[in-house]
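Hi U.,

Before I forget, here's the chain from the pilot set. I'm dumping it here mostly so it's searchable later in email.
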Amino acid sequence: MSDTPIPTHWYNIAADLPVPPPPHLHPGTGEPVTPADLDALFASELIAQEAATEPYIAIPEPIREVYRTWRPAPLIRAREFEKALGTPARIYVKYEGVSPVGSHKTNTAVAQAYYNAQDGVTKITTETGAGQWGSALSFACAKFGIDLEVWQVRASYDSKPYRRFLMETYGGTVHPSPSPLTASGRKILEEFPDTPGSLGIAVSEAVEVAASEPSTRYALGSVLNHVVLHQTVIGLEAVEQLRAAGEENADVVFGCAGGGSNLAGLAFPFIREVLHGRAKTRVMAVEPAACPSITKGEYRYDHGDVAGLTPLMKMHTLGQDFVPDPIHAGGLRYHGMAPLLSHTVELGYVTGQAVDQTDSFAAGVQFARAEGIVPAPESSHAIAACAAYAKTLTEPEVLVIGLSGHGMLDLPAYHSYLEGNLASTAE
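Structure:
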């Protein structure tokens, strides 16, 4: 079901919500941030998109041209998984693992690299957890002739060497975080020399370098409004593909939630249908029990990084200093949740659910054996939640899973699970 056209526009849910999302605040003044406050970090068009109020924003043709390498991504009816679960549900999987780097991250990486190139930027800095974002941005920067420097969370840098190899193959330079290359990294290493690192720490290092170099800008792989915006190509395609399959609407959408870009990208176009009275779809944000920002965090203003260099954002957060266990699902270790996604949770359009990592791997293995696709450990959380729900049904429902990437570079984690070496992360 991949014959629907590539979207010509991204969807901005902020334009349709009944209550406007809270603004980002300047960390020094506490006032709403202005475009000038963000000039040192982001490309001009990305700054404009961060505060956009129109419902649709045109996708430039050079970006769509790169998208054509893998988009539209397929929507797959998981019939064998349905049989394995013994459920009357019709389960569809929106599979982003067909991208060049094997995850959804390329949807925004290509856009961010393009807009930076338009501004004459010669170097970008960023952070990465599992390595999927770093890989995607390395690929995108190679497309548009930009140098890339990546700070990868130490736990993932050590446990996922093939992600680093992929980044380096595309031309990215990769450092373990925290590193001795930045003031924020050195401070953390002095206090906690054996820290496994966190995305908040890695963000601080990348932001620090970008802010200090005039020709360098920073790129974030999740959380911010413009990142979520770019990911809506996922849901825009899925809504149309579901209709092409003869389904009027989805009953429930399941997506894994770390920083929130994958889930928001899939879910926001489905929520659009709800907001316009065309559907009653429910959305489940499935997060790891080891890092449960929605289900156990507070909804308040917080920094996106440890050093406090980023704007204050209203989001579900475990606190900027939170350092989660070095779980294998490295892409779900962020302390906060995307402000726009957090806002939809508060408005009742999205519900949070925490899943133990051992349960998620069990579901991932079951899905792989039924459908042949090894899911990313992050996506396995959504698969686990969907499977548990599907087995309770006595009447048919249409369920959609966001499969944000494949797990072919995460096989050591699956091996640990299958050998019984993966400890439970549930409290």
